[in-house]
Amino acid sequence: MFDLQLTRTTRDLLAEIKEWSIKEVRPHARAAEDLAHPPAVNEVVAKCPVRHCPLDFRYIGPAVRGREDDVEYVKSLNGGGSLLGVLAMEEMNVGDGWGWQALPGNNLGERAVRLLGDDYQVHRWADGILRGDYKITSICMTEEHCGLDLSQIRTTAVQEGDEWVLNGAKRFISHGAYADYLVVFAQTRPGSGLAGVRAFIVEPTDEGFFVDKYSEDKLGVRYYPNSTLRFDNIRLPKNRVLANNNFGEFMAILNGTRPFCAAIGLGTAKGMLEYAVDWVNQHDKPFSPRRRQAFDEQVEIMTAALDRVRRMLMRSAWKHDQDEADPMLAHKAKAYALPILEDVSFRSMQLMGPAAWSTEHLMEKWYRDAKFNDIVEGTGNMHRIFVAREEFGN
């Protein structure tokens, strides 16, 4: 049974994560945007209450510093790893989003190998993350003309003897420029749609791998690069093609991670609202009683909207922890959340007035980040289409 009540240990841990995000991460937000990784990244990461990214909580636990082997403590934390991870992701983004990206983990490439690879591939590349052989991976799906619709990709892989020859390009690839290895989706039978799509492991040292553009000049979320990559006659041995082509299993990963995307926006919107309220409380002397009442009413409305989003994300994460990652619930959670979060973010800026648009504050930066989240792991329109098809048929 789904329970919204959080244990005391869970609340305490989330409070510690929020405090870290505000006190340690936020002061370096501008540097992270300008430099991708601020100079203080190692010191900030070392102070985080957990050792790795919340996306990995479901698979390897929360790894709370100093409590890694405390079985009873871990049991006292709420639910499985996805529920706790979504709540932690929200708090990590209250201060600024670059902090969670700097933590170890966040390896969708490793997840893909674990789901689609054979024993050798899992041992070498997926378990390599756990051994420390690799630190970060990248998933390469998006191309110039298409996003998550794998049936439309044009990158090709042609078998020649015991090798596969990979050609094509990918764009908007997170961490693609410096990943230790990449999982690249390519078409092996052009014109066959999903039936011909396979996943290949590419390492940055492979001859014919090029980073054509280190990062897009993005509106927001500039603290990690989205790269343009090119594959020019890369010759891959047969152990580089992942054994399983059941992409339903792989796409189930996204059913679990989409609520995290919304949790990033939730934390950003909550941080903006709290920042705006604190700022106004210090600058509200000109406010008339009526204006102050209207302000308080707006804050209450926005806080209630964030609570509704949080409950939906928690339910979606809880379902994932029951080994029932519900694709429709994941689509609904992200489609429902992002317009609300974007609205709360913008209205939080309005509460501050013109000051919010100044680079003296981080509000304009956070608003750009909030806009960016709408397209991560599928645009809002895509999610609404999937939900409409489910509810009303094709």
Folded structure, characterized:
By secondary structure, the protein is α+β, with helices and mostly antiparallel strands. It folds into three domains: 8-102, no CATH class; 118-240, Butyryl-CoA Dehydrogenase, subunit A, domain 2, CATH 2.40.110; 247-392, Butyryl-CoA Dehydrogenase, subunit A, domain 3 (Up-down Bundle), CATH 1.20.140. Helix content is 51%, strand content 13%. The protein is built from 14 helices and seven strands. The protein has helices at residues 8-25, 29-35, 41-46, 57-60, 71-76, 81-95, 98-102, 108-116, 119-131, 247-282, 289-321, 327-352, 363-372, 380-392, and strands at 137-140, 156-160, 163-174, 181-187, 197-202, 209-213, 226-237. The strands form two sheets. A four-stranded antiparallel beta sheet has the order 2-3-7-6, with no helix packed on it. It has a three-stranded mixed beta sheet with strand order 1-4-5, with helices on one face. Strand 2 (156-160) and strand 3 form a beta hairpin. The chain is globular, with a radius of gyration of 22 Å.
Keywords:
alpha+beta; Butyryl-CoA Dehydrogenase, subunit A, domain 3; three-stranded mixed beta sheet; 51% helix; Butyryl-CoA Dehydrogenase, subunit A, domain 2; Acyl-CoA dehydrogenase; 394 residues; four-stranded antiparallel beta sheet
